[in-house]
Amino acid sequence: MFKDNDFLYIDYTSKIKDTGEVIDTTNEEEAKKANIYNPEKKYKPLLVILGEHRVIQGLEEALYNFNENEEKDFEVPPEKAYGERDPSKVKIVSLGELKRQGVNPYPNMLIRLQDGNYATVKSVSGGRVILDLNHPYAGKTILYHVKVVKVVKDDVEKLKSLLDRWFGENNKIGLELSEDKKSVKISIPKEYFLLEDLQTRKYILAKDILTYVLPESAVTYTETYNKETFKG
Amino acid sequence: MFKDNDFLYIDYTSKIKDTGEVIDTTNEEEAKKANIYNPEKKYKPLLVILGEHRVIQGLEEALYNFNENEEKDFEVPPEKAYGERDPSKVKIVSLGELKRQGVNPYPNMLIRLQDGNYATVKSVSGGRVILDLNHPYAGKTILYHVKVVKVVKDDVEKLKSLLDRWFGENNKIGLELSEDKKSVKISIPKEYFLLEDLQTRKYILAKDILTYVLPESAVTYTETYNKETFKG
């Protein structure tokens, strides 16, 4: 049994119940088997902070009832996954109009509309195209297979988990938590000084630390420049 | 007599020798009189670091031979100001072509060409337009009236001058120089955390400090977040 603000690492695979289609997985072999392998993605356990609402609602709710190392299957109904289907989001548009936008539609094609929304092509006939603007998984019950592989209890370990989340594993960022836990010192090495979104990552990391780990702390970033910084 | 890396504040007015046209001035009254007053601009002495090459070459060279509070007039030839005129940069283009680009040219108009360069319209006649791609002040001798109003000698004052340059006067940034001058601590208050180019300003400021003031120092920025940072 877990509670708000607990840090869990989970392995999971999610599938559409009706079809068995694999949506997502943290397991590289599963991804390859399901033909959704992405070489850009790192297949590794996912950090979930309970109460953060970064994962599908039904998955997060189920996690409260796990124990460490427990492995379970469960299903999540549409309203706690990708939402119910909204029939009013099915529209008929003219084939000519889509072609003018540079789209040559065929059934099951996922297209991006000019307003930025995505739609699935349901059918093309007689110069008319039926588009479905619902999320492709709307109305679907999702099957989850989940294992809680690790629970992070130590505050310093929690801080490291957040560092990994925002700066990647194997980052070279220094971390120091004072004895009284009132002060977190994070030193950014020069490799990161020209990272375009450094300021944003620091902002979000500090917010996560103060929200989920040490609300009463001060998080201080330091960045040190010397003449070596500007060489080569 | 000044030398490389000296920090001077100067008041100046520059004019085209031929015509007396005022190009630029640090004096608000002069700017208004010359009809070049810009309400967005702060009229105040300009920081010049000798050897930095941020101002017109002939002006910088002349400044080495000033004394504090000295006020002088001198002229700068084109090759040490805006360059010689290059006659091959005068081109004939068709009036129709410019109109297609949305430009309706008239003599002395400054226009921006599609390649990003600026040009001055010299004449328009018979469907042909003569454009001059030289800098408007190329080939001109420039008259300077300059006063060195202040020389910054103290290292902390130099650091403050650089802070003013990159973060504006009246900035709330904290500054601390250690006794042995090996360490400069700059604390950035939360008002600046979401400044889009904060990281760039910090980078350039550190570079200026290490180049012109304290080459052997370490410049350390600190930014502290706590729960107050994210309120309101």
TrEMBL record, chains A, B:
<dbReference type="InterPro" id="IPR054016">
    <property type="entry name" value="FKBP26_IF"/>
</dbReference>
<dbReference type="InterPro" id="IPR001179">
    <property type="entry name" value="PPIase_FKBP_dom"/>
</dbReference>
<keyword id="KW-0413">Isomerase</keyword>
<dbReference type="GO" id="GO:0042026">
    <property type="term" value="P:protein refolding"/>
</dbReference>
<feature type="domain" description="PPIase FKBP-type">
    <location>
        <begin position="5"/>
        <end position="114"/>
    </location>
</feature>
<keyword id="KW-0963">Cytoplasm</keyword>
<dbReference type="GO" id="GO:0005737">
    <property type="term" value="C:cytoplasm"/>
</dbReference>
<keyword id="KW-0143">Chaperone</keyword>
<keyword id="KW-0697">Rotamase</keyword>
<dbReference type="Pfam" id="PF22199">
    <property type="entry name" value="FKBP26_IF"/>
</dbReference>
<dbReference type="GO" id="GO:0003755">
    <property type="term" value="F:peptidyl-prolyl cis-trans isomerase activity"/>
</dbReference>
<comment type="similarity">
    <text>Belongs to the FKBP-type PPIase family.</text>
</comment>
<protein>
    <recommendedName>
        <fullName>Peptidyl-prolyl cis-trans isomerase</fullName>
        <ecNumber>5.2.1.8</ecNumber>
    </recommendedName>
</protein>
<dbReference type="Pfam" id="PF00254">
    <property type="entry name" value="FKBP_C"/>
</dbReference>
<dbReference type="InterPro" id="IPR046357">
    <property type="entry name" value="PPIase_dom_sf"/>
</dbReference>
<dbReference type="InterPro" id="IPR048261">
    <property type="entry name" value="SlpA/SlyD-like_ins_sf"/>
</dbReference>
